């Protein structure tokens, strides 16, 4: 029982649903040109925030950046002219910066996409993917869904699914052929298998990111090379400090920092992920009562609660103090890495408990400032540094001509207080502008859809989907008699994918088969079922 519960909980980090029948509607057509006029600009490709600037957007690109006519410091010839037919967004007393980037998320419910946008996040990188993520990435790219830009890794490339060098090579080549954006390591690999992984990944042009392979020292991995980014500063503890007998020893920080700096590898801090562990051990009920947790879908709240919560299962209250000490040590380590010039990136690892999509980015910015970053440096980790690392086309993370029209307009100065990123006037994603009211309407739509399935989510358990399926059948019967529909397609698909990721494919098939019965016109539901059936046969 306990093992199954842990597996089901852990699967949430990698679970993925199919497209909902009543998917989020396509954004309404916008005027061909949008002008942000007289803003204080944070271009992020250089420090500073010049006032009285104008940014012109056409389609999904920035086409002009420069002084406003009203600046009083420039001639009419030097000022950016606003086209007569442009939609003007007045920027006096407001700050414009690139949309924020979360380079470490785990997307398991498509209805979380507007949640990212509502908190100013316009690009996310999913670090455990399936074919559904590839489909979703293209739907977002084509403008068929409302949400941030999406990049995605494929399934983890490590033991037990890929052990030998040949198995690793086959996995990397398959992911390259399918079109994933990076290769994610999350577990154990032998040295020869890791060497093959990075060699083949370089050949096919995919960056290798994630954890330091378990069983290998950090020094060994960095000497081999090929790891582009370490997705948690926490990983340095497990691969360097602890194996060398230097657990939480500040005297060993300088040597670790020198090793990382000489390799050129980037580090994503994800302090927000680790800081939530001890409070859950102390008082899980209080953590689940935090206002931001209400944004989580019912399935997530179910799997984050007792008796499923992995942290509560693994740790006792006596462990909380040691976890807090480790968190403080990680803050010191991030500070030292930053001061040494190591590139620190921003990611949150949502949706591990209880890291809320979108909201957690603001908290991680505060963590970076607490680690010694200036507000501009913290924002750079979430914009230009992430954007340069991800290397998209058009480029993201900076405000410059020919850059992506992904923008965040605030009514407070984030350089005075980085918490101002929550003071959102509006967000532009893929060139589409949404005001605060429009974002709130998207959230209300999402919350209403999730509320219908709250009772059903309480029936998800690790031993069998039977109680859930019986309840869905009863709810479907009532719907046929005129009651409101109980669920949309995304819910059952996400439940099925949780079972699949927890290595319970037979349960996934049962749930996804019911989804096909409920939504017979959905090609996505049929594809998700076929994937689960293939795993059972395998």
Description:
This protein is globular. α1 (2-11) crosses α20 (489-501), α20 (489-501) runs antiparallel to α21 and α21 (505-518) runs antiparallel to α22 (523-537). The chain has 22 helices and 16 strands. The protein has 538 residues and is α/β, with parallel strands linked by helices. The protein has helices spanning 2-11, 113-118, 131-141, 165-178, 191-204, 218-224, 234-241, 253-263, 271-275, 277-288, 298-304, 310-314, 320-339, 359-370, 375-382, 384-390, 436-451, 454-457, 466-480, 489-501, 505-518, 523-537, and strands at 33-41, 53-58, 61-67, 87-90, 95-98, 100-105, 121-126, 149-152, 183-185, 208-210, 227-230, 266-268, 344-345, 407-410, 424-429, 432-435.
Descriptive labels:
single chain, 538 residues, alpha/beta, five-stranded parallel sheet, 43% helix
């Amino acid at each position: 029982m306990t093992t199954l519960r842990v597996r089901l909980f852990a699967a949430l980090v990698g679970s993925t649903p199919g497209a909902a029948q009543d998917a989020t509607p396509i954004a309404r057509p916008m005027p061909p040109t949008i002008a942000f006029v007289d803003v204080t600009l944070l271009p992020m490709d250089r420090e500073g925030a010049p006032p009285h600037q104008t940014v012109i957007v056409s389609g999904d690109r920035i086409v002009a950046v420069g002084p406003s006519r009203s600046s009083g410091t420039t001639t009419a010839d030097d000022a950016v002219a606003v086209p007569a037919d442009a939609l003007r967004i007045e920027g006096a007393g407001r700050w414009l910066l690139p949309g924020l980037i979360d380079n470490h998320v785990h997307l398991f419910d498509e209805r979380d996409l507007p949640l990212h946008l509502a908190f100013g996040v316009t690009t996310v990188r999913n670090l455990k993917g399936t074919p559904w993520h590839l489909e979703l990435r293209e739907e977002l790219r084509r403008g068929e869904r409302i949400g941030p830009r999406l990049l995605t890794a494929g399934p983890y490339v490590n033991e037990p699914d890929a052990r030998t060098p040949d198995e690793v090579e086959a996995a990397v080549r398959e992911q390259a052929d399918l079109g994933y954006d990076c290769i994610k390591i999350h577990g154990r690999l032998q040295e020869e298998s890791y060497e093959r992984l990075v060699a083949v990944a370089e050949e096919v042009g995919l960056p290798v990111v994630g954890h330091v392979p378990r069983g290998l020292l950090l020094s060994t991995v960095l000497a081999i090379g090929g790891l582009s980014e370490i997705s948690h500063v926490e990983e340095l503890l497990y691969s360097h400090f602890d194996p060398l007998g230097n657990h939480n020893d500040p005297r060993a920080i300088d040597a670790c920092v020198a090793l990382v700096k000489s390799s050129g590898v980037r580090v994503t801090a994800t302090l927000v992920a680790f800081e939530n562990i001890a409070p859950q051990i102390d008082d899980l009920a209080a953590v689940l009562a935090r206002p931001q947790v209400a944004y989580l879908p019912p399935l997530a709240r179910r799997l984050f609660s007792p008796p499923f919560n992995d942290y509560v299962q693994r740790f006792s209250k006596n462990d909380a103090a040691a976890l807090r000490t480790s968190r403080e040590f990680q803050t010191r380590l991030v500070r030292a890495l930053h001061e040494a010039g190591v590139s620190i990136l921003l990611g949150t690892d949502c949706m591990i408990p209880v890291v809320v999509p979108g909201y957690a980015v603001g908290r991680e910015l505060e963590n970076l400032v607490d680690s010694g970053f200036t507000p501009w440096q913290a924002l750079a980790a979430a914009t230009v540094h992430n954007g340069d690392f991800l290397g998209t086309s058009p480029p993201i993370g900076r405000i410059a001509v020919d850059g992506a029209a992904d923008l965040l307009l605030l009514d407070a100065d984030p350089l005075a207080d980085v918490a101002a990123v929550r003071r959102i006037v509006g967000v532009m994603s893929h060139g589409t502008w949404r005001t605060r009211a429009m974002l709130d309407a998207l959230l209300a739509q999402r919350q209403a859809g999730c509320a219908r399935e709250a009772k059903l989510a309480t029936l998800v358990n690790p031993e069998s989907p039977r109680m859930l399926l019986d309840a869905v059948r009863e709810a479907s019967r009532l719907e046929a008699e005129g009651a409101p529909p109980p669920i949309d397609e995304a819910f059952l698909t996400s439940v099925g994918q949780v079972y699949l990721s927890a290595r319970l494919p037979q349960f996934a098939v049962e749930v996804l088969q019911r989804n096909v019965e409920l939504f017979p016109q959905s090609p996505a539901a049929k594809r998700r079922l076929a994937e689960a059936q293939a795993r059972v046969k395998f």
